[in-house]
Amino acid sequence: MIVQTINLTKKYGKLVALNNLHLNIEEGECFGYIGPNGAGKTTTIRILATLLQPTWGEARVCGQVVGYENRKIRPLIGYVPDFFGAYEDMVVQEYLEFFASAYDITGKKRDRIVGDVLELTDLTFKRDALVDSLSRGMKQRLSIARVLLHDPKLLLLDEPASGLDPRARIEIRELLKELHRMGKTILISSHILPELADLCTSIGILEQGEMVFQGSVREAVRRAQTGAVVHVVTPDDHERAQQVLAALPNVEGVHLRDGEIVLTLTTDTTDFSFIAEAMLANKLRIQEIKPEEVNLETAFMRLTKGIVQ
Fold first, then answer.
1. Across the chain, which distance is largest between two alpha carbons, in Å?
2. pLDDT tens readout for residues 132-144
3. CA–CA separation, 168 vs 259, rounded Å?
4. Which of 28, 92, 221, 275 is most deeply packed, by most CB within 10 A?
5. Pairwise CA distance, residues 267 & 290, whole Å
């Protein structure tokens, strides 16, 4: 187990940022950490990064206990916060050499490793550019390059795609996929849920400091599925079509949304051919019958209550 927390709790006065959090991340996972602002995601990551001490409970990274074995933990992690530090007077290569030296990486080994991470993050052509001249997307890639210098087992990424344009987000996502293929264990928090669904092997949904779900994206979607929802598009009388469809045995609810008839069916319904049969039998024309997709965004909305601290 790369990450394990047991009853992890963090309080700021009367505010409970984390409430008896149980979190488990296996080696090689890409774990997406989801929750509204103030849910406790950054607090969790900072505790795992040994920057915060829990109020009570326990957090372990690679078997080492946070707060007691921090010096053993720090070489094992790479932490990318949601902001970039100020290094205006350094060029990219100097920036990476500076942090490599902090991990006692010197000489030819340092030159080789700096070259490798520049190539991996596609920043070789910017090695002589001032850090402050980089775009936000390039700064994020440089932050990831920095934490790869010492070859950590666990990457802790706090909103790495926040504020990036679509191209920069895609570049960051592809870089993280490559790191995952290389065997890195990744914990990433993000509000961009479709990208997490595409990237992560498992997710955790946090609300008001408590874990409301942990598992695969597929399981989250299954949990959020309250019944099959089907959209019916017809050019005919919507009111009469709704009456016909509402009378069908597998239909639990019917309403009109944006010119489409939306049917909520019983959870065991998988064959929608009876809808077409009923429409045709009542001389109602069909333009389209389409099941509503339940994705990670839908699952998040249904599994949380919208509570913020």
1. 82
2. 999 999 999 999 9
3. 37
4. 92
5. 16
Torsions phi, psi for 67 (to 5 deg): 100, -25
The reported pLDDT for the residue numbered 262 is 92
H or E stretch including 215? strand 210-215
Q: Identify the burial level of 117 via C-beta atoms within 10 angstroms of its C-beta, where 0-12 means exposed, 13-18 middle and 19 or more buried.
A: buried
Length of the chain, in residues: 309
What three-state secondary structure class fits 262?
Answer: strand
What are the phi and psi torsion angles at 275 (to 5°)?
Answer: -65, -50
Q: How many CB atoms lie within 10 A of CB 238?
A: 15
Give the DSSP letter string of 71-118.
HHHGGGEEEE-SS----TT-BHHHHHHHHHHHTT--HHHHHHHHHHHH
Q: What CA–CA distance (Å, rounded) separates 244 from 208?
A: 44
- Kindly report the number of other CB atoms within 10 A of residue 29's CB atom: 19
Q: Distances from the Cα of 62 to the Cαs of 74, 77, 99, 145, in angstroms?
A: 11, 9, 23, 22
Three-class SS of residue 165? Answer: coil
Strand bridging mode 3-12 / 15-25:
antiparallel
Average pLDDT on 150-159 reads: 96
Name all domains of the chain by residue range, CATH numbers in brackets: 3-223 (3.40.50.300), 227-293 (3.30.70.100)
Contact between 189 and 33 under an 8 Å Cβ cutoff? The reply is yes
